[in-house]
Amino acid sequence: MEPRCPYTHTLDTLGTDLHGEAAHLRTHGPAARVELPGRVPAWSVTRADVARSLLADPRLAKNARRHWPDWIEGRVGPDWPLASWVAVESMFTSDGADHHRLRTLTAPSFGPRRVEALRPRVRAIVTALLDGLRATAPGETVDLHTRLSYPLPTTLICDLFGVPEEQRPEVRRVVDGVLATDATPEHAKGVLDDLFAAMARLAATKRAEPGDDMTSELLATRDAEGSRLSEHELISTLILMIGAGSETAVNLIDHAVALLLSHPRQLALIRSGGATWRDAVEETLRLEAPVMHLPLYFAAEDIDLGESVVIRAGEPVIFDFGAPGRDPGLHPDRPEEFDLTRPDKTHLAFGHGRHYCLGAALGTMEAEEALSALFDAFPGAELAVRRDELLPQESFIVNALRSLPVRLVPAAG
What we know:
By secondary structure, the chain is α+β, with helices and mostly antiparallel strands.
């Protein structure tokens, strides 16, 4: 049977209704034809079973330099709004032996023991941030996004990679810049240039003054005789680790706080011992995954998904990692309700298969520590607006909030 001519949907670059858009795309088959910024065609995958299967399929690749004709032949270039996601050379954009080699460089630093060893540092950062919040008047509205959710992960990842204090504002700016999906070609090219420049400056600083940090460790590997880590791979790895090491946790903390404050009975379950902070984190990941459409995969050869849908070799594929947790095919029982007692909280918020997020355990631990400390310090906290009035960040890549206005009431004494 010839593949059907698929419906084509233009993704909303502002991300105004991420979940509604995902539900709509799910109705159009195992993969739906979409148009990315710059009128770039791609396939969007929203169904849980299809996503799991494809993410484990060796016919699906990450390397645009080998598998995307439009990139190889220059029809899509560095001024494309999503170029930052394919122009790098890290484990995020590699396959096979290259992926294994690059992932091996950083994987040990995010193993269970190393993550647990970071817990005291996470608690210290949380304590300092909450001490700052205690200085506010009882009942005063504060933006928890800027006062807690954002500074916790960004401070920790900058500490881990030894980013000097004077370089941190620029590093945060360029990392945040890659999330914009409505950028002009000029702005997109500027973001890409600034991103590489900021990480090159960090590398130069650490070459001159190495320390006990992950950037210095990567440089030692890069500069060792016989090293197989190129300079471009080094800079790309810094971009990946510093960016991915913060954004996911920021969004997770924001959404978990918003969900718990808008569902007081669920929060009461934790306080009574009927549920745990881990339950809150996992249910938040299921319902409000921090990352939605993650660029970009490519078919290394034709992939027949059934239902007359064939992804041809060289065509881009974009996964909606926020969709499986709400997929009725995976969660037939009230998939859009926040329920900490739900026995099955399966999600794909951190991906699946060989490109599963290295920082999943770290992000989960950061969120647990932030939530438990926040609600211990401010048990009477409440949202200053309705949850449906919280403004999303203008991006279809991340499921993020612009701000999180909360009224804080400290614990007695």
